[in-house]
Amino acid sequence: MLIPTRRRTWSPRGRTPVVRYNYKHDRISAIAALTVAAKRARLGLYLQLRQNNFKAVHVAKFLRLLLAHLRGPVILLWDGGQIHKGPAINAVRDAFPRLHLERFPGYAPELNPVEQVWNDFKRHTGNSILRGKQDIRLHLHGSARRVRRSPDKLRSFVLGSDLPSAPWR
């Protein structure tokens, strides 16, 4: 969103820092997948942005693109959101028998490593003044590039979640 995320910062003694912004409720919708290839111990981050909200048909398209990049069986862990259900998702599942869909418990963001990705992105845009949707896009793409270049950072997202231990550590 265009509303800045406030973070702790430094300023001269006695001067309270002020972040000025114009209140706009503009936002970009984002979907991400953090991939783990257990055999090669390789991690990846896939990201897609939209001007409007994601719906199940958009998630299905994202899944098809993701499956085009990944080989072998794919186990997808995700929450029970409405956009993760419906005929479009079922069609992808039926078309790709190597795709196995598993749901997180009801409300468990601590299990979802992608939540760690969003937290990292927000940390790097803290106190920034984003003037429009294009600024949000640029920040998100820049954060994704930064994170993709760091296998240790990607690994930290998985290890920072409360998922059970993985053998590829």
Name some characteristics of this structure:
169 residues, alpha+beta, two-stranded antiparallel ribbon, two-stranded parallel ribbon, 5 helices, 4 strands, globular
Topology:
Elements: E1 29-37, E2 42-50, H1 56-69, E3 74-78, H2 87-95, E4 99-103, H3 113-125, H4 133-148, H5 151-160
Parallel strand pairs: 3-4
Antiparallel strand pairs: 1-2
Helix pairs in contact: 1-2, 3-4, 3-5
Polypeptide structure, described:
By secondary structure, the protein is of the alpha+beta class. Helix content is 37%, strand content 17%. It is built from 5 helices and 4 strands; from the N terminus they run ββαβαβααα. The chain has helices at residues 56-69, 87-95, 113-125, 133-148, 151-160, and strands at residues 29-37, 42-50, 74-78, 99-103. The chain has a two-stranded antiparallel sheet. It is globular and about 60 Å long.
Tally of DSSP β-strands: 4
Helical fraction equals: 25-40%
What class would the helix/strand composition place it in? alpha+beta
**Count of discrete alpha- or pi-helical segments spanning 4 or more residues:** 5
Q: What is the element string, with H for helices and E for strands?
A: EEHEHEHHH
Computed Rg: 18 Å
Unreliable segments (pLDDT under 50, ≥5 consecutive)? none
The average pLDDT score comes to: 84
Major sheet details: 2 strands, antiparallel
Distance between the termini: 34 Å
User: What strand order characterises the main sheet?
Assistant: 1-2
Please indicate the percent range of residues in DSSP E strands (runs of 2 or more): 15-25%
**How would you sum up the global shape?**
globular
